[in-house]
Amino acid sequence: MRVITGSARGRRLKELEGQETRPTTDRVKEGMFSILQFDIEGRRVLDLFAGTGQLGIEALSRGAASAVLVDRRKDAVTLIRENLRITGLQDRARVVQGDAQEYLNSLREHFDLIFLDPPYEAGLLEPALAHIARFDILSPHGIIVAEHPADRVLPALAPPYFIHRTYRYGKIGLTVYHRAGNEESPQ
Questions:
Q1: Does 44 reside within a domain?
Q2: Are 169 and 117 in contact (CB under 8 A)?
Q3: How many of the other CB atoms lie within 10 Å of CB of 34?
Q4: Range of the domain at 109
């Protein structure tokens, strides 16, 4: 698992042992960042189920202004910090150990780009999406990228959120949500 491009290009990231964490495959990550290539620089990023931190780190490497990486597991948080050190990106990142829902409940900031890649069978994706929309933590014109099994259809969210498109990479799906801008809201 390597950083694809940007300031940390080619740096090898460490991975967690065991089956509890399933890193995004290189093929899916390349597709994801191809979709987002013009929407990263200068953005504030939330990597909510960070695991190894690879999605937040890739965004930082490509010029994101800052990233918050959240994971509940202590070993994952330790690994994320190590991967940030390896890539030299720790100065623009904040790592939070804790439950994703509890973190969202305490959140007082907005993000431009949110990555959601929880364990597929944990039932965490849909509640996280609902919470993000309900508390409107995505900036106007912001983007959510949710990774899920390709055979799962993710729910529509209430305006100003909408599904932009769903992509398929073999058995893995990426659903991209956008948030409309404030000027597009009813007067």
A1: yes
A2: no
A3: 10
A4: 37-165
